From TrEMBL:
Gene3D superfamilies: Hypothetical protein af1432. InterPro entries: HDOD, RNase_Y/CdgJ. Pfam families: HDOD. PROSITE patterns: HDOD (PS51833). This is Putative signal transduction protein. Residues 14-211 form the HDOD domain.
Length: 290
């Protein structure tokens, strides 16, 4: 069995692990809970969003209607507190991830980065006047979930990957392919696809690091690709892999990006992040010290 096969077999048994599951569970157990706050936690957490979309898009709930692409849509579809409790409880796994091993990322750091990618992708589309689809935020939020899965369930040591990348001038994901037989973006896309998430989202997650290999144009893929680059430039939630990724010049040209546009988007995202630090702190307080 190859290393790739071992990883896929191991991951096939995984459920999504939400960063703020404990906070959501506490709210659900409070009869006076503010469900606007619950919706906010779901919206800004990759694990909870994945669980919510996984369940709401199952045939039992979907009733054959079109797939839900955002947490807001999903909450409206479910509608009842009882079903919401079920959705969140599926994410409160016994093995709550306290650190993404190998990538040197705490749950809070990864949450910060995921939210920054999502905000950057969405804001970039707005600044460019492209009217990005609602699921742009969701796709950006879930784009790094493969790293969570590798760190939590495979316990990948990223340092040999980084050494190979530096030695041979590879991007980090290319070095992952050579050592693991798969990179975290492809793994994330495959897992989300197995959970029944819409293809529009799983394609973005799988190809967001290498959009040029997708074979067709996708506005959301382009926005999330650049959103990931901007998040790393802003410096939020960097792990051991840091800035060692290759941005696509084709995407930059297709979006007609300029330094001025990137500066505007970055400033707007940083401003938006200021209002979310309390959420990050709440998640950090619930996790045990690393």
């Amino acid at each position: 069995m190859t290393r790739r096969d071992e990883i896929l077999e191991r991951i096939s048994e995984v459920v999504a692990i939400p960063s703020c599951a404990q906070k959501a569970a506490a709210l659900l157990g409070d009869p006076d809970a503010d469900f606007d706050e619950l919706a906010r936690i779901i919206e800004y957490d990759p694990g909870l969003t994945a669980n919510l979309l996984k369940v709401v898009n199952a045939s039992f709930f979907s009733g054959g209607t079109s797939a839900m692409r955002t947490s807001q849509e999903a909450i409206k579809r479910l509608g009842t507190t009882q079903v919401l409790q079920f959705v969140i409880s599926t994410g409160v796994a016994p093995s709550f991830v306290r650190k993404i091993e190998g990538y040197d990322l705490s749950p809070t750091m990864h949450l910060q980065h995921s939210v920054t990618v999502a905000l950057s992708a969405q804001e970039l589309g707005t600044v460019l006047g492209l009217n990005p689809p609602d699921y742009t935020f969701t796709a950006g939020l879930l784009s790094g979930i493969g790293k969570t899965l590798l760190g939590a369930y495979v316990q990948v040591n990223a340092h040999p990957i980084l050494d190979l990348a530096m030695e041979h001038g590879l991007s980090f994901d290319q070095a992952e392919d050579k050592i693991l037989g798969i990179n975290h973006a492809e793994l994330g896309g495959l897992v989300l696809e197995s959970w029944g998430l819409p293809k529009e989202i799983t394609d973005v997650v799988r190809h967001h690091l290498r959009p040029d290999e997708f074979g067709q144009e996708s506005l959301v893929l382009d926005l999330v690709h650049i959103g990931n680059v901007l998040a790393k430039m802003i410096g939020v939630g960097l792990g051991v892999d840091g800035l060692n990724y290759a941005p696509s010049h084709i995407v930059a040209e297709r979006l007609k990006l300029t330094p001025e546009i990137l500066d505007i988007v970055s400033a707007n995202v940083v401003s938006s992040l200021d209002s979310l630090w309390d959420l990050f702190l709440e998640c950090a307080e619930e996790a045990c010290p690393i």
